[in-house]
């Protein structure tokens, strides 16, 4: 099989030919048909996350096969694999845990550490084949296109998992989405499916225009910090802000939008550090919470919505799997609207 693997941090991916794995036990072998390109792939490719104050968290290693938004066709299965047939085309849940720790036993294997996540700890979809440990990680896409279906494994799941943490909004409560990139756009569509009309902010007017094309009625350019005051004035302060960027500026912007008792949910991993007076947290009764992708149950609930046609599509740009390296470069340079998806044959 052919895969595109990491070399030195930030260096071009290397095309590697190796033996195609043979599934054992309950394993399932998938031929990759589509694989989305995520900002997390950039961090793993660069080999680090920025922690602020000149500090970095090293995460990459040589020989990684990135790509965790995977859609493919079942071409082989181990003798113990059940509930799946050769020829099935499925979305792959990539956030796979060890199966033995307390997180996994609680149904939260997506936060198992280090876990066995595809494209992070195990070989992912920047390859023409992927080995999946069990058929329970495979989901029917319904009538969604193959490339769009791939993005639900991270972009869709991450957005859904964050929105789920907000809970049901009461009358008059407002939600702000910070960042109208691939995940933010997915959050807009899922929010609409849940009956929520979000306020959307971004530093890029073109992305705000794209959000308006999806039916968003209230957008603000967050490069002007005064727009946070405008949001507070018009809403009395929002109940929840979902930060799909995760930079110092976006986190502080989100905090500036909140009402007393509001919640900031940080999803993006851009990097930096947060500094704020501790007494303000209890005095304002605010919640600052992280959200990391979503659980296997979240994926099941999300894909049920997808199959029922409740979630409108986002913009998808397809390019060949062999252009994995160029896709990372374009995403890092901010040249991508919606989601890039690598397609294989």
Automatic annotation (TrEMBL):
Per the record, GO CC terms?
cytoplasm
List keywords of the entry alphabetically: Metal-binding, Oxidoreductase, Zinc
Name the coenzymes or cofactors required.
Answer: Zn(2+)
User: Cross-referenced Gene3D superfamilies, in alphabetical order?
Assistant: Medium-chain alcohol dehydrogenases, catalytic domain, NAD(P)-binding Rossmann-like Domain
Primary enzyme class: oxidoreductase
| InterPro entries xref list | ADH-like_C, ADH-like_N, ADH_Zn_CS, ER, GroES-like_sf, NAD(P)-bd_dom_sf
GO MF annotations, alphabetized? alcohol dehydrogenase (NAD+) activity; zinc ion binding
Q: Does the keyword Zinc apply?
A: yes
Q: Which residues form the Enoyl reductase (ER) domain?
A: 10-342
The EC code for this enzyme is: 1.1.1.1
| Annotated family | Belongs to the zinc-containing alcohol dehydrogenase family.
- Annotated protein name in UniProt: alcohol dehydrogenase
Species the sequence originates in: OM182 bacterium MED-G28
């Amino acid at each position: 099989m052919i895969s595109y693997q990491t070399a030195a941090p930030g260096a071009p991916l290397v095309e590697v030919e190796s033996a195609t794995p043979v599934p054992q036990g309950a394993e399932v072998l998938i031929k990759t048909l589509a694989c989305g390109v995520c900002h997390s792939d950039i961090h793993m490719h660069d080999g680090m996350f920025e922690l602020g104050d000149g500090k970095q968290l090293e995460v990459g290693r040589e020989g990684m096969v990135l790509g965790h938004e995977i859609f493919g066709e079942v071409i082989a299965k181990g003798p113990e694999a059940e509930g799946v047939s050769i020829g099935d085309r499925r979305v792959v849940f990539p956030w796979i845990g060890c199966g033995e720790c307390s997180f996994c036993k609680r149904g939260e294997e997506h936060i198992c550490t280090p876990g066995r996540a595809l494209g992070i700890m195990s070989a992912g979809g920047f390859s023409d084949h992927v080995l999946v440990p069990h058929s329970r990680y495979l989901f029917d896409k319904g009538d969604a296109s193959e490339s769009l279906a791939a993005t639900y494994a991270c972009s869709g799941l991450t957005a859904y998992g964050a929105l789920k943490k907000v809970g049901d909004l009461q009358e008059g409560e407002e939600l702000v989405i910070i960042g109208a990139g691939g995940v933010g756009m997915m959050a807009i569509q899922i929010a609409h499916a849940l009956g929520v009309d979000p306020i959307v902010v971004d530093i890029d007017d073109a992305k705000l225009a794209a959000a308006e094309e999806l039916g968003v009625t209230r957008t603000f350019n967050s490069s002007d910090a005064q727009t946070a005051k405008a949001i507070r004035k018009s809403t009395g302060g929002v109940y929840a802000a979902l930060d799909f960027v995760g930079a110092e500026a976006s986190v502080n912007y989100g905090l500036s939008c909140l009402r007393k008792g509001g919640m900031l949910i940080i999803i993006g991993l851009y990097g930096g550090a947060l500094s704020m007076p501790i007494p303000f947290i209890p005095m304002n009764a605010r919640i600052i919470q992280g959200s990391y992708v979503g659980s296997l149950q979240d994926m099941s609930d999300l894909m049920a919505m997808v199959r029922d046609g409740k979630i409108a599509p986002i913009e998808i740009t397809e390019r060949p799997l062999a252009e994995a390296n160029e896709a990372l470069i374009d995403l890092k340079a901010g040249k991508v609207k919606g989601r890039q998806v690598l397609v294989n044959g």
